[in-house]
Design brief:
The complex is a heterodimer of chains A (367) and B (408). By secondary structure, chain A is mostly helical. Chain A contains 17 helices and no strands. Chain B is an alpha/beta fold and 408 residues long. In chain B, the strands form four sheets. A six-stranded mixed sheet of chain B has the order 2-1-3-14-6-15. In chain B, strands 11-8-12-7-13 form a five-stranded mixed sheet. In chain B, strand 4 and strand 5 form a beta hairpin. Classes of the chains: A mainly alpha (367), B alpha/beta (408). The interface between A and B is large, with 37 and 41 residues.
């Protein structure tokens, strides 16, 4: 078999990637499989799990997903909190990041470099440091409440009130913890508990996440914006599009790949939130800042239920994968689709009518 | 031919890396065969405690042909878990009362305490705390009880005298009412089982009555309702409501005139050197006197190769002389009755904490109870204006489930 002049290159290729494969294998792939093994075992944290644990089937998963009890309710509470967190943070941080990117990309803006640095700054600061500052800002007599007091508003004791935001809103409409809403919902929480909404403490974490991460994503959008040539925008302007129309019909579609990246990174990051929650501790107040990643840590390191902790991590992994797939499907590159085809047909008909009218006019004049 | 060389090289590189990885994970600490090199992992309250433990360990090591390294943990539970998982647990470590049964039930701890020569000298309540499955497992290091700490300046300013020192719930409420004004609240303590539980016990309640979980008893309800009543009247506030991290801070800053804390209240002298305070026993409730005792023990990992040396060291560290030296250095109360008695004489300002231990009980603690208590703590956040009965009912349910599970 003749190999040709490039025959030996595959070997060199393997030789060069071997260190990377090994490192990833030893420090990433193997631990993931080990964790998967632990999630199906009764390992109690003594010695190596391979030698000191028995497989218990899906017992750990059933404990957090199926069996009525504290483990299930804690898990459900954590998922609920994180869900509100994701729903609030991901769209807002993406929108803010895009807005900031468009602003600092404008040629007319003075001191662009300063603004770019300033907006990016929270991203490079340690999240522990920022959380600590926010904890101070939002204490009962902190700067935020002092600021609110100028306007005669009395701020809540942000990190001490366990009441959910939505409970307050529902209460204003006369909906209370009664009737079908008080009945049991999924995972052992009542619908009323599912509908609690973020507590004031969780809201602060949401504000903080938007504040810190929008700078990072601004940078991604900025890089993408700089690839959009100015001639395209000029062409849009010549066609008579105003700036809003230019943004939504020209710029935004061209940013779609970046938008996908930002949303994916945002989803993953928000489902894995840990530092801030760890610093507040115990999910205070009233478990309203309990998150799955922190619950996995608590179950493992404090409760020594390592299998349960690993199971929580893998359910979280599944949620992240599922959400990313959904998001990919929503943002998929599609052909016009039925609505688009209809719109196109309508447009073509309109054009034809206009052309017919114009030619009729011309005919009239020439006659 | 050349193919074989490549394959050989790849395998060699792979195994070298894997082996290097293994060596990095396994190595240090447990000392292998040499069983007199000890590592102690402590969660310290400050430099004074670290220095005192180091000095004691060095003295023992010099006399006993051993070496001892004291490691200060930044997060004791996490570092312990990590050590056990890596087969690299410290040879001796602080074990908190709240984690004890979780560790003991998972077979982490060497049950050595019953065989100590001074096993009978410890307070029975403390020995009980560290008894798992009928075996006195690890030796209590020291203990703290809760007392009523009064800011004496605010006390006299409010026109109160020694005769007004609260001895029962009514006089506590009267004193708290007298001490409450625009800037100061009469009474403050953390909104958690470790504080509110004493009121439940003072009402005659208990969480575990023999083998029966009795969290939803009328006595416990009476305790919670008393706390609710004080809070509704505005004479009791929880530290978070008055911008304090804990009771001691509220007391030191003058935001609260009375708090319920333990001997660690001494720690506020650094931040608030001008605050004068005195400690008294907690007032009695309708069910009599009651307080909580909190304690740590010296844990030794099960099947440790350094067990013998570690036990000798514990014997030294829990001896009366050494415990009194610790008391001098950082204010803890010795865990043996004889040493605690000399401590009470030497430090009359802390005598009430020692006296409290005669009737103190340990907070509920069996394998798995920690989660139920954590849930109770979370529910307590809704106590003011909430339904105390519902909170206890849910606590009863969780505690019962945890208890059933711990009994197998």
């Amino acid at each position: 078999m003749s190999r040709g002049i490039r025959g030996g290159e595959a070997r060199y290729g393997w030789a060069f990637v071997a260190p990377a494969i090994l490192i990833i294998g030893v420090f990433l792939v193997l631990p993931i499989f080990l964790a998967l093994f632990v999630s199906f075992s009764d390992w109690n944290g003594r010695g190596s799990p391979l030698a000191n644990a028995d497989l218990v089937g899906g017992a750990n998963y059933s404990k957090i997903l199926l069996e009525d009890g504290l483990a299930q309710r804690n898990f459900a509470t954590a998922i609920r909190n994180n869900l509100y967190y994701v729903i609030a943070v991901v769209p807002l941080q993406t929108a803010l990041a895009m807005f900031l990117a468009v602003q600092v990309n404008r040629r007319l803006l003075r001191a662009r470099g300063f603004f770019r640095t300033a907006f990016y700054f929270p991203s490079v600061t340690s999240s522990i440091a920022i959380t600590t500052i926010f904890l101070f800002l939002f204490t009962g007599s902190g700067a935020v409440n002092a600021f609110l007091a100028w306007f005669g508003a009395e701020g809540p004791n942000w990190f001490a009130e366990p009441a959910g935001l939505m409970h307050g809103i529902l209460g204003a409409f006369g909906v209370g913890n009664a009737g079908p809403i008080a009945a049991g919902g999924p995972l052992g929480l009542t619908w009323w508990e599912w509908l609690a909404g973020p507590s004031s403490a969780l809201s602060v974490l949401i504000i903080m996440a938007i504040f810190t991460t929008s700078g990072t994503f601004m940078l991604l959008f900025l890089a993408a914006l700089q690839n959009v040539g100015s001639e395209i925008e000029e062409a849009a302007m010549v066609d008579g599009a105003n700036s809003l129309r230019t943004f939504f019909s020209v710029t935004l579609p061209m940013l779609k790949p970046t938008l996908f990246t930002v949303l994916t990174l945002g989803l993953i990051g928000t489902w894995q939130v840990f530092d801030q929650v760890y610093l507040i501790g115990d999910g205070k107040p009233g478990k309203t800042t309990l998150m799955p990643a922190y619950l996995a840590y608590l179950s493992s390191f404090e409760g020594l239920k390592w299998g349960q902790g690993a199971a929580i991590s893998f359910v979280l992994f599944g949620i992240i994968v599922a959400m990313t797939l959904v998001q990919r499907w929503v943002l998929r590159d599609r052909d016009l689709g039925s609505a688009g085809v209809r719109r196109e047909r309508r447009f073509v008909r309109q054009l034809n009518r206009d052309a017919a009218a114009a030619s009729a006019k011309t005919a009239g004049v020439s006659r | 031919m050349s193919k074989k060389i490549w394959a050989g090289a790849a395998i060699a590189a792979a195994s070298a890396l894997v082996l290097a990885g293994c060596a990095g994970g396994g190595g240090s600490g447990d000392g292998g065969g040499d069983s007199r090199d000890l590592t102690i992992l402590i969660g310290t309250s400050g430099d004074a405690e670290t220095a005192a433990v180091e000095a004691a360990a060095d003295t023992w090591a010099a006399d006993n042909d051993a070496t001892v390294e004291v490691v200060v943990a930044s997060d004791l539970n996490q570092q312990l878990s990590q050590g056990f998982a890596g087969d690299d647990a410290p040879d001796l470590f602080y074990m908190g009362w709240d984690q004890f049964s979780t560790y003991a039930s998972n077979g982490y701890l060497e049950p050595y305490a019953a065989d100590l020569p001074n096993a009978g000298d410890f307070y029975p309540a403390l020995a009980d705390t560290f008894t798992y499955d009928g075996t006195f497992t690890c030796a209590p290091k020291d203990f703290s009880t809760l007392g009523l700490i009064i800011n004496t300046d605010l006390w006299t300013a409010a026109g109160l005298t020694d005769a007004d020192i609260p001895t029962d719930w009514d006089s506590l409420e009267a004193a708290a009412t007298a001490l409450t004004n625009d800037t100061t609240v009469g009474l403050a303590f953390g909104l958690e089982y470790a504080r509110i539980g004493v009121f439940m016990n003072q009402a005659g309640g208990t969480l575990l009555d023999g083998d029966t979980v009795a969290a939803d008893s009328p006595e416990n309800l009476e305790g919670l309702e008393y706390v609710q009543k004080l809070h509704d009247a505005g004479v009791l506030k929880f530290p978070s409501e008055i911008d304090a991290g804990w009771g001691g801070e509220a007391l030191g800053a003058g935001k609260a005139a009375m708090v319920i804390e333990g001997p660690w209240i001494k720690g506020i002298q650094g931040d608030f050197p001008d605050t004068n305070y005195a400690a008294y026993e907690l007032p009695a409730g309708p069910g009599g006197k009651s307080t909580f005792t909190f304690t740590n023990c010296w844990g030794i990992p099960a099947d440790s190769p350094t067990k013998d040396a570690a036990v000798e060291l514990v014997e030294y560290l829990t001896g009366d002389d050494q415990q009194l030296a610790f008391a001098d250095a950082f204010g803890v109360i010795p865990s043996t009755e004889s040493a605690a008695a000399s401590y009470a004489e030497k430090y009359p300002e802390n005598a009430s904490f020692v006296a409290g231990n005669d009737y103190a009980v340990s907070p509920v603690n069996f394998a798995g109870s920690a989660d139920a208590v954590a849930d109770f703590n979370a529910q307590l956040e809704g106590l003011s204006g909430g339904d105390a009965k519902a909170i206890l009912a849910s606590f009863q349910q969780e505690l019962q489930a945890a208890y059933d599970e711990s009994q197998g």
